[in-house]
Design a protein that fits this description.
heterodimer; A: 103 residues; mainly alpha; 86% helix; B: 526 residues; two-stranded antiparallel ribbon; 2 strands; globular
């Protein structure tokens, strides 16, 4: 992997992470929060693949990326399962309403 | 191949491998019981006496006790300063002083929480999930203590975190518990992804993930310094979310207070401490890069102490108050470890890990005692509300043992002399004074004042239990099952014993302190 490719990959990572964090900060719908989390996670997977490329060990980098994908999928499934329960018991997915319900 | 595995690997493998079978067993039993009850009802027969309790709690407890056996064997094998290695492919595991200390805390608290949780959630239908996840979480934390490469460390961490997300949201029909679970999940996932980016950067610069190889590579000047420093910052922030270092702590009070009480004890007693161990291991590879890591730990420690105390002062719910006091105690641990990293104080490292141990016992005891009172005053009567401080009025008359246990825990956390918390704090403060640096001494004075301040919220709870007339809630409270009292009594003995004979813990804290110091000792100048 050339240095240019590494720079482009890092720029893409920064972009994905920024979009993810921005999304998590402004959206109020739990499903959209999970989507933002996923965008963030895609950034970290790109880091792993790019790191394998630049350090000359692409196989290791890719196996790390696959492990991350697995862990990330499990987290997403659980987040969506929780969102279903929230919809069932609170009747809404709006985070503002949910935090008001608690009191 | 399996026969070649060293015995201590079984300590990690047993709880994880058996966890799905525990779930399956509990589920099958539950179904058999439901079917038999339905049959009785259909045949119009009067309900015979109900079936015995689900045996899943005993199986889970047996597995945890079984994994104590390889732990004790490994402890015997571990000579001074030595470590046990194990490698499969590029995955390396190492059992050293830190692993020993963390495993001891996790196993002891795990066994006691398992005993406690039997009656606590025995009447609920999802208990097989609870026990299976508890075992998986314990196994993952044991593995984390032994991880010897950076990515492995992350995988164990994520496994433990995934199990704990589900445990926090265990009461999935309560809005408060769902909100806490969601908050915990989102914030911790962001933290773990930041750590992952840090790991990716380190890997891109050095081409290796093994902690020992990374250490030598970075000491030799491999890689770009700004990128490696950035990954250090990512480790601090990412693991900081899990340790609840102060600006990243907002998930903790909700998660720790809404989880079932046994899980609160685990989360507060050992889960945040495993984050601390992971942070230490991850930062240690960058030790030669900069001398600022110790200062960062000290700064976060100071902020954690004061913010934790100020927030705890305003709480009226017992479990929320205990959750905020965890922030303060993480602060003390960071202080001790910070003295070790920046001034090379062995005492500080030992004090820090000793406080990790005493805090696990004291906070575990506090949450379990508060949990038994919550059970008697609320859960047993079908009320899912929180335990308010005002509900404790006069609890000592109706529940003398539980009230005594809660008192011992609170006074220990506040740092009163004959108890464990005093000894570990004393060791941290003494090491800070011994450095002779004015900043360190100022931090020690600050920590002592914080310790006094913390009594301002512990003492009213004690006075509430002993000096007030029993409230209506207490007089009409249910009885506390013996199974929930036994772990309390054992933990009281541990807290008192560590306070009277602190040398008892030397077998654990001395090797762990040496490891902390050795992984941070700077090899080359840079």
């Amino acid at each position: 992997m050339s240095n240019d490719a590494w720079t482009i990959a890092m720029a893409a990572v920064l972009g994905l992470v920024a979009i993810g964090i921005y999304g998590m900060l402004i959206v109020r719908n739990l499903i959209k929060v999970v989507v933002a989390l996923q965008i963030f996670a895609k950034g970290t997977i790109l880091v792993m693949v790019a790191a394998g490329g630049i350090s000359g060990k692409p196989a290791v980098g890719q196996s790390l990326a696959i492990t991350v994908i697995v862990a990330d999928t499990v987290v997403t499934v659980m987040a969506l399962a929780l969102a279903i329960q929230v919809r069932r018991w609170c009747g809404t997915l709006d985070t503002r309403v949910i935090s008001r319900l608690r009191r | 191949m399996i026969s070649q595995w060293p015995s201590w690997i079984w300590m990690i493998a047993l709880p994880i491998v058996t966890s799905p079978f525990i779930y399956l067993l509990g589920r099958l039993f539950q179904r058999a019981r439901d079917a038999s009850e339905l049959k009785q009802r259909l045949q119009g027969r009067a309900q015979r006496k109900p079936w015995r309790a689900n045996p899943v709690r005993w199986v889970s407890l047996a597995v945890m006790l079984a994994s104590c056996v390889p732990f004790v064997a490994a402890w015997r094998e571990l000579a001074d300063g030595a470590s046990l290695q194990f490698t499969v492919g590029i995955v390396a595991l190492k059992f050293d002083g830190i692993s020993l200390l963390l495993s001891a805390a996790v196993l002891v608290l795990g066994v006691l929480v398992s005993i406690f949780s039997g009656p606590y959630i025995g009447h609920e239908s999802g208990q097989e999930k609870y026990h299976a996840l508890l075992n998986a979480m314990i196994g993952a934390m044991l593995g984390l203590g032994c991880a010897a490469d950076l990515f492995n460390l992350w995988v164990w961490f994520e496994t433990a975190a995934i199990a704990s997300y589900m445990l926090v949201a265990y009461h999935s029909d309560r809005a408060a518990s769902l909100e806490a679970g969601m908050k915990y999940l989102v914030q911790n996932s962001v933290g773990s992804m930041l750590v992952l980016i840090g790991i990716g950067l380190v890997f891109s610069q050095t081409g290796t993930l093994n902690l020992a190889q990374l250490r030598t590579a970075i000491a030799a000047g491999t890689g770009s310094r700004p990128l490696l420093l950035a990954s250090g910052a990512l480790f601090c922030v990412g693991f900081g979310v899990k340790i609840a270092m102060v600006p990243m702590h907002t998930w903790l009070p909700d998660a720790h207070s809404q989880a079932p009480s046994g899980i609160s004890a685990m989360l507060s007693g050992v889960v945040i401490e495993t984050g601390l161990v992971a942070l230490l291991r991850a930062l240690s590879v960058l030790a030669d890069l900069s001398s600022a890591w110790g200062a960062i730990l000290l700064a976060f420690g100071a902020v954690n102490m004061i913010v934790g105390n100020l927030l705890a002062l305003r709480q009226t719910q017992v479990k929320r108050l205990l959750a905020f006091s965890s922030l303060t105690h993480v602060g003390y641990m960071l202080l001790g470890l910070g003295f070790a990293v920046s001034f090379g104080q062995l005492e500080g490292a030992q004090g820090g890990v000793f406080h990790l141990l005493t805090h696990a016992a004291m906070k575990g005891l506090a949450f379990l005692a508060a949990g038994s009172l919550l059970f008697a005053l609320r859960v047993a009567r079908g009320d899912s509300g929180p335990l308010e401080a005002a509900d404790l009025a006069g609890a000592a008359r109706r529940y003398p043992v539980t009230a005594l246990a809660l008192t011992v825990a609170l006074l220990g956390l506040g740092g009163l002399p004959p108890l464990g918390g005093f000894m570990s704090k004393w060791q941290i403060f003494a090491s800070g004074v011994r450095t002779g640096s004015p900043v360190a001494i100022a931090l020690v004075v600050f920590a002592v004042l914080n310790s006094l301040l913390s009594l301002a919220y512990y003492a009213p709870l004690v006075s509430m239990m002993y000096r007030k007339a029993p409230s209506d809630v207490v007089t009409s409270g249910a009885a506390i099952p013996t199974g929930m009292t036994v772990p309390l009594v054992l933990l009281v003995l541990v807290v008192v014993a560590l306070g009277v004979w602190p040398a008892l813990a030397n077998g654990l804290t001395v090797p762990a302190g040496q490891v902390v110091l050795s992984i941070f000792s700077r090899q080359g100048g840079m």
